[in-house]
Design a protein that fits this description.
Blueprint lengths: L4 H17 L6 H15 L22 H4 L5 H7 L4 E2 L2 E2 L7 H14 L2
Antiparallel strand pairs: 1-2
Length: about 110
């Protein structure tokens, strides 16, 4: 029995590492809700999809947000209500629920390049 202990330990280690590094499956409905939230609240200025140009050239496409900011940093701002001025126009103020924030951040994470 002791001769199988190293093999069992190695198998346990491989399974633990694999489980820790595996990405959880994305909830398709959450991604769909996140895209709808982005489109409704931000799509007038920002490109909210995986392709396309922003309607306002000064508004960065959402697929590049993670290059400038950790997406997790947006969680608090979304919960408190985003108020950011853009040159020439105001970004609409909106406040999201925890479920909406989770969906939006999941969607944003899914389109980053």
């Amino acid at each position: 029995m002791l001769r199988f202990a190293p093999l069992a330990l190695a198998l346990f280690f491989l399974l633990a590492v694999g489980a820790a590094s595996a990405k959880p499956p994305r909830d398709a409905q959450a991604l769909k809700r996140g895209r709808a939230i982005a489109q409704q609240n931000c799509g007038g200025c920002h490109a909210v999809g995986a392709r396309g140009e922003s309607a306002n050239p000064k508004s960065p496409p959402f697929r590049y947000l993670a290059r400038k900011y950790p997406l997790s940093n947006l969680e608090e701002a979304l919960a408190e209500g985003i108020v950011v001025g853009h040159e020439g126009s105001e970004m609409p103020q909106f406040r999201l629920s925890a479920v909406q924030i989770e969906a939006l951040l999941a969607y944003l994470g899914s389109i980053q390049k």
